[in-house]
Design brief:
The protein has 573 residues and is α+β, with helices and mostly antiparallel strands. Strands 8, 9, 10, 11, 12, 13, 14, 15, 16, 17 and 18 form an eleven-stranded antiparallel sheet that branches. A seven-stranded mixed sheet has the order 1-7-6-3-4-5-2, with helices on one face. Strand 3, helix 13 and strand 4 form a beta-alpha-beta unit. Helix 1 runs parallel beside helix 9. About 7% of the residues have low confidence.
Length: 573
């Protein structure tokens, strides 16, 4: 019930977000009509339609996205007609006849006479098709859960509660706005001008949505509006992870829960399958990771060092490889990554996220520290705090009765991609190149799942990126259809990484990277040379830039000399 309440509150907060601006004219265009017959059906139609479309989108099928794209076009046509009836009363009679045939009287004159519930509901459906709310932490939590665990009735209800929250705040604004408009009409006789002004706003809203402002520019503006409030709500109710926190006599580490079974892995590497019973009496570190995750890669030198240092004292480190992208589910890819990374401890291939869900995990990387009795005593999400984590291992080993626990702290001195991030200078976020989670795309509206030509506009704003050339943008990645294609990103970080893969034929794809239009020189990464040249030979994370000197805004461009490359996500360090 707490999550449903949070979903509702997250929806209420959308009234403060710029992403609500494009649909406000559609809502306020009928603010002078009776709320029960006009405003309420419109808002309910909007809420239910948004929840239905968003639920279909979580299924991951491109057909749902295409259906919504066609629905948005139909909605824009319908609302354009509605705006024209408000702006040009002389056309209202002509437009009313076909709309009546569709069951909707959208002209202002007809609506004033009878306040058609059907017309309002139809407008609400159209508005729901167009609405693209800014994805703050609460909506992100809902959609991430759906992506991991699959769409369900619970997901649809959460989305519906979110939409109803938005409808509630809009209803309050509509009721207030309706009274203001009524007062203006009575005192100024300005009804005609108000109607025309609303018509202009409706048409402006359609234009804004058609230009993608609702999912582009306005989304960027919203980052500082409601995110902080939503994040504080999540932290207050403790949705990050619920733990029991039962005190243990003589120990500073409470019991957070019981380690679940390690069942559901499709394969184990470096070990036969391990069970909870087999691990009884051992101190266990469970590390959730995936091999294209830069944060995970930077943590692995520590888990490997712990496994070697404390093996004789009773420690077992288990890596749970929980894939993010489809290519990470291929066992041979993971086996190669384990070999290349030099991991010697057991690794479970959690392709179906069975172990992930058993731990109720939500993060890459995530470390769970289990005592000799099978109880979770500590956890850490993300990179960092390695000294504290190692001290937890030492304490749990001593509690288990081991007197020969080594002291000190490991220093793996990781190099290349696995070297620690310059976190104090990092302002560029992880950015996905598929339309499923893409943000800050500057090359126009993506043509989903079909080949199209793109051009990157210049100059790019901070953290914007674009495509040039012939590309097919899919839900998870973008594929280059003709040689010479480019990806450009305006970033602020020391390191730039890009998850790439060759085409289905597996042939290497040659590329050249530039920074601010110049060869990389000493700023090259481990997968590029001083001239910026390299090749995509497998599906993995590539370090393309490691900049020297002060970290400032830079423009990265990669040009692919062969077709077929698949680009998944940018990460920075």
């Amino acid at each position: 019930m707490i999550l449903f309440l949070l979903s509702y509150l997250g929806g209420v907060l959308t009234i403060l977000s710029p992403c609500i601006l494009p649909v406000l004219p559609f809502v306020f265009a009928r603010s002078d009509q009776p709320f029960a017959r006009s405003g309420l059906p419109l808002l309910l139609g909007m809420a239910v339609t948004f929840a239905a479309i968003a639920s279909l989108a979580t299924l991951g099928g491109s057909w749902a996205v295409h259906a919504n794209s066609w629905g948005r076009i139909a909605a824009m046509v319908l609302l354009t007609l509605f705006g024209l009836t408000l702006l040009l009363p002389s056309l209202a009679d002509r437009m009313t006849r076909p709309l009546v045939a569709l069951g909707s009287r959208l002209s202002n004159e007809a609506s004033e006479k009878q306040g058609s519930i059907t017309a309002s509901l139809l407008l609400g459906v159209a508005t729901g098709l167009l609405w693209a709310p800014c994805a703050g932490p609460i909506l992100g939590l809902i959609l991430t859960g759906a992506a991991i665990k699959g769409a369900s009735a619970s997901t649809t209800l959460l989305l519906l509660f979110y939409a109803l929250g938005a409808a509630t705040s809009l209803a309050a604004a509509l009721l207030i706005g309706g009274r203001v408009f009524a007062a203006m009409k009575q005192s100024l006789g300005a009804g005609e001008w108000i109607r025309k002004g609303l018509g202009v706003l409706v048409l402006a809203g359609v234009v804004a949505i058609a230009l993608g402002l609702d999912t582009g520019f306005l989304t960027q503006l919203s980052l500082t509006r409601t995110t902080g409030v939503e994040q504080s709500l999540l932290e207050k109710v403790g949705l990050e992870r619920k733990t029991q926190n039962i005190a243990v006599a003589g120990s500073s580490l409470p019991v957070e829960g019981v380690m679940p079974e390690l069942a559901g892995a499709v394969e184990w590497l470096n070990s036969p399958p391990l069970t909870k019973a087999q691990l009884k009496g051992k101190v266990v570190v469970v590390d959730f990771w995936t091999y294209s995750c830069i944060n995970c890669l930077r943590a692995l030198p520590y888990t490997e060092a712990w496994a070697k240092k404390y093996a004789a004292s009773g420690l077992v480190v288990i890596g749970v490889h929980s894939p993010e992208f489809a290519f990470e589910k291929i066992p041979d890819n993971v086996k190669k990554a384990v070999r290349d990374l030099g991991l010697t401890y057991p690794v479970a291939l959690d392709n179906n996220l069975a172990i992930w869900q058993a731990f109720n995990n939500q993060y890459w990387p995530a470390h769970y520290f289990v005592d000799a009795q099978g109880r979770i005593r500590h956890h850490h999400f993300g990179e960092g705090e390695y000294d504290e984590s190692e001290k937890v291992i030492q304490q749990l080993l001593r509690e288990a009765g081991h007197a020969d626990v080594p002291g000190g702290i490991v220093d793996p001195r990781a190099q290349g991609v696995q070297a620690g991030a310059a976190s104090d200078a990092l302002t560029s976020p992880e950015t996905y190149v598929g339309y499923g989670r893409a943000e800050n795309f500057a090359s126009g509206n993506p043509r989903m799942d079909r080949s199209a030509a793109y051009q990157t506009p210049f100059p790019l704003a901070a953290n914007q990126w674009g495509l040039s050339g012939q590309w097919t943008i899919g839900p998870e990645m973008s594929k280059l259809d003709a040689a010479g294609g480019k990806i450009t990103f305006r970033f602020h970080a020391r390191d730039l990484h890009l998850v790439l893969g060759p085409g289905p034929d597996g042939k290497p794809v040659r590329f050249t990277v530039t920074m601010d239009g110049q060869p990389l020189g000493e700023n090259h990464g481990v997968d590029t040379d001083a001239a910026g040249n390299g090749a995509v030979t497998g599906q993995r994370l590539y370090q393309l830039i490691r900049a020297k000197g002060a970290v400032v805004d830079r423009t990265f461009t990669i040009t692919f000399h062969d077709p077929g490359v698949q680009a998944f996500a940018f990460t920075f360090g």
